[in-house]
Amino acid sequence: MSYDIAIVGAGIAGASLAAEVAPHARVVLLEAEDQAGYHATGRSAAFWSETYGGAGVQPLTTASGPALRDGGFLEPLGSLHIGREGDRAAYDAFLSEFADTPIALKAVDPHAHIAGLLPEWTLGIWEPSCAYIDVAALHANCLSRARRAGAEVRTRAALRQAERVSGRWRITTEDGVIEADILVDAAGAWADEVARIAGANPIGIAAYRRTLVQLRIDPPTTPAMPHVAAIDGSFYWKPEAGGKLWLSPHDEIPTDPCDAQPEELDVAIAIDRLEHAVDWRIMGVERKWAGLRSFAPDRLPVYGFAADTPGFFWFAGQGGFGIQTAPAAAMIGASLLLGRTPDAAVAGIDAERYAPTRFG
Fold first, then answer.
1. Contacts of 194 (CB under 8 A, 6+ apart)
2. Can you tell me the distance from the alpha carbon of 213 to that of 215, in angstroms, rounded to the nearest whole number?
């Protein structure tokens, strides 16, 4: 089989890019697992925050907002960033970092937003634009759009070999051999491994484990509760249906790319941090899971053709913000892949900021 573009990885990165380019090219999406989105995408904390990932990521998140809202993938939530007096420097730095962005941030009394918050948590920043994001629906929509435009999605098609032959890629997978003009590396935590297989220089994209736990608490959460994040980066939580709470210790544990599983110690750390923030009773742990996030050395995403390997395109390093930036990232990626003028929604974003050539 012959294609214009072969995309390795069918999580939100690969799926969203395929949806953008499939109307203009013959595309195949190659996924190693039995189902697309098994790793990072399927284990997301499912919120959209313009401050998450820092000022370097904010333009991508903000530019993605209209597409996500118009598609019905966002629901109002709001985010409260909280701290203690010892976090004053981090509090000031947070406000300063986003001072010149369109994000509306307001200093507030956190106790006015969170019943049961312990007295020492005196610092608060309100981010009203934060929203729930329906990750499953967004991912399914991207795959559906790609298929309707003619893209082929192959699962159980792990990459085994990729070599450049007569100006094209000859790609060997568990599902057979194909050819393509361009090979896109959208493999998340496995991005550097895909690069090695293709003979491209790895960038240094590293995988980290993130833990989440669903708790039953007393009093139960309410629909009015916002997403809450510690300014020092030690935890975040958000309400879930049925009065439940999703909690993370905001951990980033270095790991080899794998089917990440939660560690009991990390679950215990998360609960301990929650107990030092609120006076709620924890009635039980209902479930726990872990996912992978992957970062380039400077913690910004990587979009663009490799300088050292013809026809090899990076679309990786999307950290924990790959879902909330997916529409803008895909628009930028598609314009670079197809040599087209960027969509108006991302025309003001400097794509060079995310180019792989920045690593030399």
1. 8, 9, 159, 162, 185, 187
2. 6
Distance CA(262)–CA(267), nearest Å, equals: 7
Q: Are the C-beta atoms of 58 and 50 separated by less than 8 Å?
A: yes
Which neighbouring-strand residues pair with 246? 214, 238
> Is there a contact between 87 and 232 (Cβ–Cβ < 8 Å)?
yes
In whole angstroms, what separates CA 339 from the centre of its chain? 25
Chain length of the chain: 360
| Close Cβ partners of 127 (under 8 Å, ≥ 6 residues apart) | 49, 50, 51, 78, 79, 80, 81, 103, 104, 105
Coil, strand, or helix at residue 97? helix
Flag whether the pTM goes above 0.85.
Answer: yes
Please tell me the predicted confidence (pLDDT) of residue 39.
73
pLDDT computed for residue 38 by the predictor: 77
Q: Dihedral sign for Cα 346, 348, 352, 353, please.
A: negative
- Expressed in angstroms, the distance from the first to the final Cα of the chain is 34
41: its two tokens: 């995408």
Structure tokens at 351: 């794509």
- pLDDT computed for residue 360 by the predictor: 80
Bridge partners, 153 (sequence order):
29
Tokens of 112: 């006015």
Structure confidence at residue 45 (pLDDT):
74
3-class DSSP state of 96: helix
Along the chain (360 residues), what's the average pLDDT of each consecutive run of 10 residues?
A: 96 97 98 83 82 96 97 97 98 96 96 97 98 95 98 96 96 96 97 98 96 97 95 96 96 94 97 98 96 95 97 95 96 97 96 94
- At residue 40, the pLDDT reads 65
Joined together, the tokens standing for residue 175 give 């599902």
> Hey, what amino acid is at 233?
G
Residues 6+ away with beta carbon under 8 Å from 344:
none
Nearest to 184 by CA among 278, 310, 312: 312
Query: What is the identity of the amino acid at 172?
Result: T
Cβ atoms of residues 146 and 19 within 8 Å: yes
